[in-house]
Amino acid sequence: MPTLTMAPTLGDLLKFECNPSYCREVVTLKAGTNYPLGAVLGRITASGHYRLAPATLVAGDDGAENAAAVLIETVDASAGDAIGVVLARGPALLSQLALKYDASVDLPAERTAKLAQLAAVGLVARATA
């Protein structure tokens, strides 16, 4: 009998949200990647577009190194800029296990920094959520 694997759902990521009308925003995601549910995003200052928040400053994507939102759906932006819905502010509780980071965010201290940046906008990630 084949083994079936279910893709992650919003319920795996989002454990509490005060008010969807307040916490969510529609944003433009920078082209070049397939963004997973739970992607930790930073906002590019010059364009206002969002991308995976890197560990450090990336030339041309200034501002994106600061985690500012979490994507609440899967979005394929590999062929061009795409629209997505994010949690942009809280209060909201998220599961740490469901968050997806840029490949450059690979050290525990870097992940802790991203979680602190999200907490500053009211998006609190818990290991037990």
What are the salient characteristics of this protein?
alpha+beta; five-stranded antiparallel beta sheet; 129 residues; 10 strands; 3 helices
**Broad structural category:** alpha+beta
In which order are the strands of the major sheet placed?
2-8-6-4-5
Measured as a percent range, the helix fraction is: 10-25%
Radius of gyration: 14 Å
Largest sheet: 5 strands, antiparallel
**Average pLDDT for all residues:** 95
End-to-end CA span: 32 Å
| Element-by-element helix/strand order | HEHEEEEEEEEHE
Q: Estimate the strand proportion.
A: 25-35%
Low-confidence stretches: none
Shape: globular
Number of strands: 10
Number of helices: 3
Task: Give a short summary of the structure.
The protein has helices at 10-13, 20-23, 108-120; strands at residues 14-17, 24-29, 34-35, 40-43, 50-52, 67-71, 75-76, 82-87, 92-95, 123-126. The chain has 129 residues and is of the alpha+beta class.
Explain what you see.
By secondary structure, the protein is of the alpha+beta class. Helices cover 16% and strands 31% of the residues. It is built from three helices and ten strands. It has helices at residues 10-13, 20-23, 108-120; strands at residues 14-17, 24-29, 34-35, 40-43, 50-52, 67-71, 75-76, 82-87, 92-95, 123-126. The strands form three sheets. A five-stranded antiparallel beta sheet has the order 2-8-6-4-5. Strands 1-9-10 form a three-stranded mixed beta sheet. It has a two-stranded antiparallel ribbon with strand order 3-7. A hairpin with a 6-residue loop joins β4 and β5 (50-52). The longest helix has 13 residues, at 108-120. It starts with 9 loop residues before the first helix and ends with a strand. The mean pLDDT is 95.
